[in-house]
TrEMBL record:
It comes from the Eukaryota. Residues 96-322 form the DUF3074 domain. Residues 13-24 have a biased composition (Polar residues). This is DUF3074 domain-containing protein. Residues 1-27, 49-68 are annotated as: Disordered.
Length: 329
């Protein structure tokens, strides 16, 4: 089964954790993370050739960078190989939205430095998202795997370091709250850093691929809290934490942030290279279902404030939050 998909996974499908009872049928921790990172690299590689790009880039103030928006339908990783028949393929397809933006690597108005991107998006990803996203009202850490038990992982020729995995309970509330029920997501998040360009092909590198890059990936997978597949203590914690009338919703996402040193593939550490010669490339792709009575076509609509418009707005929300944090120090 594909890991990066909109259909949520049961808790019985994730690696063992010290709080779980012993179960030999659970997947190996390293293999699970390797599979998720491989699928993320594969998806990122496929987006330019399979998604449709909006004719114009979109502003997202106060960010100086404009945002390229791409949209496309795709099948989960395993379904592409196993599905038979066009009708069945259509049923399994998921609507994905991707945004891409390039930011000058500086601690200045309308942009952010590499260290600020790392601090805001790599560390405490969910907690920081709550600080800059108005609708996120609560984040609770349900599970966390010790980084020393994970170590470095090599996937498709890329060595990932600083690998973390956790499960968070994330609640969004909306106004008027009497009319719109809260949405709660259970997200398994994998974050990993790397040096060098992630590549899923054996083809010769293009000119852009010859640039020196470092970056990090964040992969988020949806889980569901069915009582039959969720450890009892964990199910009780989830039930006690969510607000009344909440609707459990789902999303999957991949996020890649890269520091690109154009033409600077030298032996010098990136910190010794001029910031003016570097850009930060920020890519995020997601598929989601808010559940409840909100039709999918509304969620896919830019004009009605659906996912495409929301992901573009996130760029400005993050840059604005980063600027406020900078001024406060």
């Amino acid at each position: 089964m594909s890991l990066i998909q909109l259909q949520p996974h049961p808790f019985t499908s994730i690696p063992t954790h010290p709080s779980f009872s012993t179960d030999s049928s659970r997947p190996d921790l390293h293999q699970y993370i390797s599979t998720a990172l491989h699928e993320a690299l594969d998806l990122l590689h496929s987006i330019p050739s399979t998604f449709t790009t909006d004719p114009k880039q979109h502003p997202s103030p106060p960010s100086q960078a404009k945002v390229k928006l791409l949209r496309g339908w795709r099948k989960p990783f395993e379904s592409r190989a196993s599905t038979k028949g066009r009708e069945k393929e259509k049923d399994k397809s998921e609507f994905w939205v991707c945004r891409q933006s390039e930011h000058v690597n500086e601690s200045s108005k309308g942009t952010a430095s590499w260290r600020e991107f790392e601090a805001g998006l790599r560390s405490e990803h969910a907690e920081h998202e709550m600080e800059y996203t108005p609708s996120v009202s609560a984040v609770e850490r349900l599970l966390e795997w010790a980084p020393e038990n994970i170590g470095e992982i090599e996937v498709d020729g890329v060595r990932f370091r600083g690998v973390n995995m956790e499960v968070n309970l994330i609640t969004h509330t909306f106004h008027p709250s009497a009319l719109i029920s809260p949405r709660t997501f259970i997200s398994l998040t994998i974050s990993a850093a790397y040096d060098g360009l992630p590549s899923t092909t054996s083809q010769a590198p293009t000119l852009s691929q010859k640039e020196h890059r470092q970056g990090f990936l964040t992969v988020q997978l949806p889980l569901h809290p069915a009582i039959s597949s969720t450890p009892k203590a964990l199910h009780q914690e989830i039930t006690a934490s969510v607000p009344k009338r909440t609707i459990f919703a789902n999303y999957a996402s991949i996020e890649r942030v890269e520091l690109v040193q154009a033409g600077k593939a030298t032996d010098q550490p990136s910190t010794e290279q001029s910031q003016s010669q570097s850009l930060i490339e920020w890519t995020m792709a997601t598929t989601s279902d808010a559940g409840g009575s909100i039709p999918q076509w509304v969620q896919r609509s830019w004009a009605l404030g659906g996912v495409p418009k929301a992901v573009v707005a996130d760029v400005g929300l993050f840059i604005g939050w980063t600027m406020r944090r900078r001024q406060a120090t």
